[in-house]
Amino acid sequence: MKKIILAIDSFKGCLTSAEVGQCVEQTIKEQIPYCQVIPLAVSDGGEGILDILVKATQGHFITIEAHDPLMRIRKARYGVSGDGKTAIIEMAEINGLPLVPEKERDPMKTTTYGTGELIADALKRGYRNFLVGIGGSATNDAGLGMLQALGAKLYDGEKLLEGYGGQTMGQVNRIDTNGILAGLEESSFVVACDVHNPFCGPQGAAYVFGAQKGGTPAQLAILDKAMYSLSAIIEKTTGKKVKELQGGGAAGGLGAAFYAFMHAQLKPGINLMLDAVGFDNYLDGTDLVITGEGKADSQTLQGKVPAGVLERANRHSVPVALLAGKIEDKDQLKKAGFKFLLQTSPDTLSLPEAMKPKIAWENIRRATLSLLKSVSPQSADFQSSKSEQTSA
Description:
Helix content: 25-40%
Strand content: 15-25%
Number of strands: 14
Order of helices and strands: EHEHEEEHHEHEEEEHHHEHEHEHEHHH
Strand order of the largest sheet: 3-4-5-6-10-11
Largest sheet: 6 strands, mixed
Shape: globular
């Protein structure tokens, strides 16, 4: 092993992409000191995309006060690219799932209003190009909260609706965009999606992701039914069909709102990230790529970081190892092309314990050691570096 690339997503709520990469890099260098290790912080459009893109473009941050998923005021950042032309927004910065304690998670109540406030602030400062990452949301309101923050009004008949959250969707029968903020129509939006799911239906936002946002089975049925009806209202208002839009279900339907009301391009977030960090440029002469995320399963193959990394590495015939706290659907992941699957957390370890940073760090370290032995169990590289370490 002479060259290894690390392109690992965050272990959400536990360790950042950079922290996971640091742990793996240290472990490799301890065992194979002369191995060139290239750590690249990556994200699929959710947590981390803001910091990574601002750093990659040598930009800067702007901090304002905005509303979190439960309409509580808190400070939040967005970025400006180094050339000063693009506002970089991470919706998870203000409306992300980690901002809501587990006991308070409820997609009927959580809103994307704060995301709209970040966009509004950037508009008022004169920015007209936007790159928005919408992964990791706590919401399932189809982006209605964002639209409200940008000046749209929601009506039930002649009654103006003033509530927020997923519960509002079923009440809406008209969306008035006449009061939308100046500058929005002339702005361009590229939206980084972390999933391909449609707006509604069995594979839509509510049924696939609503439970992890606190939704009960009864609530998921209500939300999906409301989104089905809302898709017709959105089409009537904008002329855009969103019901089966690929990526329309991202962030609880926020992807569809961007597409329909902001004429946004929905793109896989991981491809934007890999281009930004120059991933393909490092692949020549690489022996192994290590990727991963907090939990890997069949959804990993639907636009997540490991899937994007695997696709790029396959083009150069570089083997890929998948590292994750928990791994399910192993046969599907193997069939997709991952050469090694490494679950860092023992099945006997509870999730709260597994997510403690110190414990996660040690588990990642152990999994990395196991990987190195699997890659070349008899290699002179590994054995000699082990003996050198012991003799030292």
